[in-house]
Task: structure prediction
Amino acid sequence: MTEIIIIRHGETEWNKTGRFQGHSDVPLSGEGRMQAEVLGRNLALNRVDAIYASDLTRAMETAAPLAARFGLSIIPDPLLRELNFGAWEGRTFSDVNAEDPDAMKRFYNDPERVDIPNSEPFPNFQRRVAGRVREIVVQQRGKRVVIVSHGASIRILLADILGMPIRSIWHVSQLNTAVNKIRFEDDGFAVVTLMNDISHLRSEDVR
Result:
């Protein structure tokens, strides 16, 4: 059995202001750095064998306290990045909605059909993230692996594992530093054992 613990990065200023981040390299906010420190202290694990992270700064910064706690190096991986939002990156949700409300409606209700200039199609995004996670499972068979990634990346992975249509991903909450656990049996069968857990933050009254 291989356990994957996949965690969303901490808060950024663009999270606070409601901007599409995607591949834009946005660092953690002060609140996000505090969340990462609390995650590193309080995540209820006694052993981690490897730590991977999206190579974007916000994911690497979130992984750093956990890596320090377990004496591990972070393995940066661009295949674990967020969706590339193309022309929407850096723009606020409200501005995009005001400009093209139909596109925003499709984004939330039928993302496979949304046309965002220069963006990554959602099916390609799912193949990238879910495929890479399954490769990591094979490479780290029998181990416990932490992956620090992004909100949509985790949602699209969970949809793949649970057999959910891509259009369902926005019905799954992923808060900043949310912890999700997936157990992979040796035959590849996967079971989600925890989703969107932020009990590590509540233990120190961090929201």
About this structure: Residues 2 and 143 are 5 Å apart (CA to CA). Strands lie at 2-8, 50-53, 74-76, 144-149, 179-184, 190-197. Helices lie at 13-17, 30-42, 57-70, 93-99, 101-109, 122-139, 151-162, 199-202. The chain has one domain: 2-202.
